[in-house]
Each structure stands twice: as structure tokens, then as C-alpha cells.
UniProtKB/TrEMBL annotation:
It is found in: Cytoplasm, Cytosol; Golgi apparatus, trans-Golgi network. Catalyzes the cleavage of glutathione into 5-oxo-L-proline and a Cys-Gly dipeptide. Acts specifically on glutathione, but not on other gamma-glutamyl peptides. Glutathione depletion is an important factor for apoptosis initiation and execution. Acts as a pro-apoptotic component of the unfolded protein response pathway by mediating the pro-apoptotic effects of the ATF4-ATF3-DDIT3/CHOP cascade. It comes from Nothoprocta pentlandii. Belongs to the gamma-glutamylcyclotransferase family. ChaC subfamily. Its EC number is 4.3.2.7. Keywords: Apoptosis, Cytoplasm, Golgi apparatus, Lyase, Neurogenesis, Notch signaling pathway, Transferase, Unfolded protein response. This is Gamma-glutamylcyclotransferase. It comes from the Eukaryota. PANTHER family: CATION TRANSPORT PROTEIN CHAC-RELATED (PTHR12192), GLUTATHIONE-SPECIFIC GAMMA-GLUTAMYLCYCLOTRANSFERASE 1 (PTHR12192:SF26). One of its GO terms (cellular component) is Golgi apparatus. It catalyses: glutathione = L-cysteinylglycine + 5-oxo-L-proline. GO terms for biological process: apoptotic process; glutathione catabolic process; nervous system development; Notch signaling pathway; response to unfolded protein. The lineage of its organism: Eukaryota, Metazoa, Chordata, Craniata, Vertebrata.
Amino acid sequence: VWIFGYGSLVWRPGFEFTSRKVGFIRGYSRRFWQGDTFHRGSAKAPGRVVTLLEERGACTWGVAYKVCGEQIAASLQYLNVREAVLGGYDTKLVKFHPQEKDAGEPILALVYIATPQNPSYLGPASEEDIAAQIIVSSGCAGHNIEYLLRLADFMRFFCPQAEDEHLFSIEEALISILPSLYLTEESLEET
């Protein structure tokens, strides 16, 4: 079984796997439209994590993990809790295209996608509003800022040829907010 990750699974799968491949799926774009009140946020300050939006001509890069034998049941059980129960994601099968030039045919992979019907779905917002929400959110897996920056770093390092305007616009908005936030906190401490 292959499992495709496009968010925190790219750097922290949390399950055993036999091999991994960087690559992409077609027909979906990555969006910070899913709320998170457990891993990267709380009930008072929900974090923003990614989901996939069906979009003709779009492409989303990530990592596919091959799980075999006993790894299958354990990984699916773990992901069912992490993604479905706690995250509100549904599963779909997609065609994964490995980055390697001699990869051959696409691989069928399982992917978790949050839909607008789930209660944690936040939907679209401006890059600045998403960045502002990410800055104040933290959950049991860490700060929401870490989630955004690790995902942006993954894209730069493993998929430099790929474009993800949504991701990089939010990162840019976050970086522009941070200095003013730091200065505001510093001025408050002086008073």
C-alpha cells in the first residue's frame, strides 16, 4: 500500500514504512483551509493545516510511503486516528507520479483529504489572515509556525522546480508580520 502525504506527513510520518518517494498528484491544489484544534492549535485558537482542493490542471507535491506486511495495519490504524478521527479527513485513492525520471507508470496511493463538510473546515481566507492565525496557534505537536515553515522548506529542498504560490505567499505574509509582532511585544515590556 502507498500513502501520499502533502502536509506534516512529508517530514513526520509517524509510522513505519519500507520506502518513500518524492513526487506529485494531479488535479489537486494544497490549501491551508483546514482547522486544527489538536495537533497545531487549540479550541480557543485553532491552527491552520493543509488539505487538498480539487482543481483542474493543478499539481501537489509531497511524499508517498510504501508500507508492506505488518506495517499496513499499524500505519492505517495510526493514520485513521491522526488524520480521520482527530483531523476530520476522508480517504481517497489518487495516482502518484514519482519524481524519478525512470519511474514508469503512476502508483495508486491513499490520501487523506479534509472536505468542506467536516466541522473543522475553515475554508478560504487571505494569506495575511491565515498567517495571523498560524502565528497565534499551537497544539500538542508543536507551534503552527513550525508546520508552515517545515512544509515550505520541504518544497524548496525536495521540489525546487515546483510552484506552490499559496504556501509561499502565506510564508511571506508570516515573515512580514513577525518583526512587527516582536517590536510590539518589546515595546509592551518596556512600559
